[in-house]
Amino acid sequence: MTTAPTTETDESPQAVAPSPKRGLWSPLRPLVLRLHFYAGVLVAPFLLVAATTGFLYAASFQAEKILYSHEMTVPVGDEKLPISEQVTAARKAHPEGTVSAVRPSPKDDETTRVMLSGVPGIEETHTLAVFVDPYTAKVRGSLEQYGSTGALPLRTWIDEFHANLQLGQNGRLYSELAASWLWVIAGGGLVLWFSRRRTQRKIRGTTGRRRTLGLHGTVGVWAALGFFFLAATGLTWSTYAGAHIDELRTSLHQATPAISSAAGGEHSGHDSAAAEGDVEHGVGLDKVLASARAEGLGDPVEIVPPADAESGYVVRQVQRSWPTKQDAVAVDPSNGEVTDTVRFADYPVLAKLTRWGIDAHTGVLFGLANQLVLMALALSLILLILWGYRMWWQRGRASSFGRPIPRGAWQHVPAYILVPLMAAIAVLGYYVPLLGIPLAAFIAVDIALGEIAHHRGKRTYATAKRPS
């Protein structure tokens, strides 16, 4: 299967045979064609799942607002109560667990979220979000929440299925495999499409496989840039490639700055009743929030209580839509003074690009417009996969799947091109192992099958020539 254009001339085995006069592209084209075809066929099921769940995830932002409107929104009142009173009301309704974070009402018609960790029945990596009316301190409900974007049950389920098929850490390999190969398939398709003569790219007036090819190629060309972006940003937080990207950023001094929550002052570590999750430790939430406001941290913000007696509060902005608000301050619980500040404006360039890339990939950077673009890309990928399989079927004259692209294309690539190409693939495979390992396995199997077929052909020929 393919996610970007293939070519109609891939039916001809003569495409593999070298011509007397040819440029650099002539020996490479059959190799790109074979890689595009087989990579598409083998990776298509993973891409289809990723595209379908990605479409649903992009739509889930708006669905979440409708489904959980009672918990998320309130009638606008006269004046919001102090955040400490709202948290007290939440704790009376839900005394279980500990307070891990508080998100004060960011808008006049939105509730305050009090997040509780260690609640029985809630996954360890999730929290229980208690929704409080900021004007009356009435609890409007509670829902399981996941992630820094505050995903509620519907979006959480779709997000985890998209990321790991609900299989945990091991399931993340599927999405990394899809992201690793998406740009390769799309790039190969682009090269093949633009190598065709202009007259062979048209759709109007064509039928059968040629029309399917035209649709496949045209949509693939328009969507290719989006596929490159999704692949690159998806790899930034993948298991293996993501780790290599983090190492590279760190070595270039481009890692995301971290706020220091160590409490300062002579009374640090000696405050009474200081314990993990003690949200009213020291000067309390109201003073902490006021100190953060004085440093210019506007809504939406999240307040994280001290982790222990040696730590302070951390208040950070959590707006990932444009313009991004990601400033953070640490506040000493003994006196309410700010002890550390991290400004998003001071982030290294790669840290900013990573933040923006991930947020655009997840549909939060530009809100609804961002989500509509993601849905369009996901739908395009689904159509490209279906058209790709249809072309394969049509190669078999609509009665069965067609024969594969002839092997041995790599044998016709000159050494001065093949050697640097293989070296580049080896380096890329190291940093993106779920691209490099499958590609190495494919090449090894392809060579082995070619040798087996070659020896069988020699034996058959020898038998046919032997006199009876």
From TrEMBL:
Cite the residue spans of the region called Disordered. Answer: 1-21
Sorted alphabetically, the keyword list is: Membrane, Transmembrane, Transmembrane helix
User: For this UniProt entry, which segments traverse the membrane?
Assistant: 35-59, 177-194, 215-237, 372-392, 413-431, 437-453
Q: Where is the PepSY domain?
A: 80-142
Q: Does the keyword NAD apply?
A: no
Q: Which InterPro entries match?
A: PepSY, PepSY-ass_TM
Q: What is this protein called?
A: PepSY domain-containing protein
What organism does the record attribute this protein to? Answer: Streptomyces phaeochromogenes
